[in-house]
Amino acid sequence: MTALTLSTAGAATLRADALVVGVAKGAGSKSGDLVLAPGAEAVDKAFGGKLAAVLATLGASGAEGELTKVPAPEGLKTPVVIAVGLGAAPEKDGSYDAEALRRAAGAAARSLTGSKKAGFALPIASVEDAEAIAEGALLGAYAFTAYQAGENKLAPKGAKAGGAKQALAEVAVLGAKPRDKAFKAAAERAIALAEEINRARDLVNTPPNDLYPESFAAVATAAGKEHGIKVQVLDEKALVKGGFGGILGVGQGAARGPRLVKLAYTHPKAEKTLALVGKGITYDSGGISLKPAGHNETMKCDMAGAAAVFATVVAAARIGLRVNVTGWLALAENMPSGTATRPGDVLRMYSGKTVEVLNTDAEGRLVLADALTRASEENPDAIVDVATLTGAMVLALGNRTFGIMSNDDAFRTSIHEIAEEVGEASWPMPLPADLRKGMDSPTADIANMGERMGGGLVAGLFLKEFVGEGIAWAHLDIAGPAFHEGAPYGYTPKGGTGSAVRTLVKLAERTAAGDLG
């Protein structure tokens, strides 16, 4: 893992492989001109006051995420200076948006893969700025090399297979206050949050032959022991005994059986309890309703919701939040076989309701339904489920934005505001009552499919049926942003992203502070 330090060194005296500074597009009368962001003063002095001119000559514009590398002159202890674009310079108070700093630090850290140490001299006007820079750099430095680290017998001794480079080893944030309690706490939070997001990314990126319900449960159990989290794992026998027909129905076609994992972090002074439920389909073939060619290759990511819930509970424990956070991981493989659930089968859910399965590829809502009912039995103050649930939500909101549905408009609004605050794109979505009729079944209490149009909303309405009465609930459909197939950008890598973890951790913090009512 990448190390983080709040350095007392100045930009001119830091010994590192590279020094990162910020540049921006000039505001007001200087619009279009390249300007140096605060933090770059010592570097500019080493360039004789001409750093902006040099960068402009090389084509730098200050555009968000743009990287320009120049050799460092005498007077600096680093061989390379990297200027990263922050977008438009602020016109009023001179402070940069936290998300702009987060993305800039992430882009710079990504470019430094294989380096030992880099200094980040980006603008810091507050504790929040320092935390954003630290968080972005640690997330941007992420690299998934677990399957590229074996020895290549044809390569020199010690070389990595495929020439895989390791992530930037150390991030040094300049301009913070290492001895200040607030800055120390911010750094510790950034480390805990980034490491757990990166753990979620690792889980999403792990191939399904190695990550399956039992092995995922083992990872959760080990983390529970390490961080003082109580973990309970229900295996197939326990699920049968408990009547978890949804989870069992989805998992019955696979050679590897399903699991329901409960992680409980408790604080002795907590006054509120937040329950989180994650969809954990470790591989989704679609079951008997098999996915078409071209749609199976990334289906290892269908457990991203469970990974987000797991990471959030562990992060809450590491930060020591004064709130009880319970995570429910509904884990199964959805596979076609002679024992698989068929379209037309009826499942008796943990709640006692019966569900006619019209499409076995609408399996996430079945495992979530059982977990939502079980979570409701403990009467938490609120429940949030997280799932890569529907392609319809991707069609509606694109690849970078998750949808939020809820049985409580104020709760939905709060989560949307929190997501925007932490830099995760989201959008509130409705639960139109007229779409419920489409799930009426002549055979069972409800069908797992309804109208095709508005399919993401139909899925939310299905889940709503399994939430305990009087409990505030929200559903996050992260099907778009959970797995990034394009080129990396900012602090977002190719592959698993850790989507929703920052939103959920901030929600837990707000709940602990009593800010959600």
Describe the protein's architecture and organization:
- The structure is a single chain.
- The protein is an alpha/beta fold and 517 residues long.
- Helix content is 32%, strand content 21%.
- It contains 14 helices and 20 strands.
- It has helices at residues 41-46, 51-57, 98-110, 127-140, 181-205, 213-227, 236-242, 245-251, 304-319, 364-376, 391-397, 409-422, 455-464, 501-513, and strands at 3-7, 18-25, 34-36, 67-71, 80-88, 117-121, 170-174, 230-234, 259-265, 273-284, 324-334, 346-348, 354-356, 382-387, 402-406, 426-428, 446-447, 472-477, 483-484, 495-496.
- Strand 10, helix 9 (304-319) and strand 11 form a beta-alpha-beta unit.
- The longest helix is centred in the middle third of the chain and has 25 residues, at 181-205.
- It is elongated.
- The model is unreliable at 151-161 (pLDDT under 50).
Fold blueprint:
Layout lengths: L2 E5 L10 E8 L8 E3 L4 H6 L4 H7 L9 E5 L8 E9 L9 H13 L6 E5 L5 H14 L29 E5 L6 H25 L7 H15 L2 E5 L1 H7 L2 H7 L7 E7 L7 E12 L19 H16 L4 E11 L11 E3 L5 E3 L7 H13 L5 E6 L3 H7 L4 E5 L2 H14 L3 E3 L17 E2 L7 H10 L7 E6 L5 E2 L10 E2 L4 H13 L4
Parallel strand pairs: 1-7, 2-5, 2-6, 6-7, 10-11, 10-14, 13-17, 14-18, 15-16
Antiparallel strand pairs: 2-3, 4-5, 8-9, 9-11, 12-13, 15-18, 19-20
Helix pairs in contact: 3-4, 4-5, 5-9, 6-9, 8-10, 9-14, 10-13, 12-14
Overall mean confidence score, pLDDT: 95
The proportion of strand residues reads 15-25%
Which word captures the global form?
elongated
Helical proportion, percent range: 25-40%
Unreliable parts: 151-161
Which structural class fits the helix and strand makeup?
alpha/beta
Rg over CA atoms, rounded to whole Å, is: 24 Å
Task: Tell me the span between the first and last alpha carbons.
Answer: 37 Å
Largest beta-sheet details: 8 strands, mixed
- Report strand order across the widest sheet: 8-9-11-10-14-18-15-16
What's the β-strand tally? 20
Continuous helix count: 14
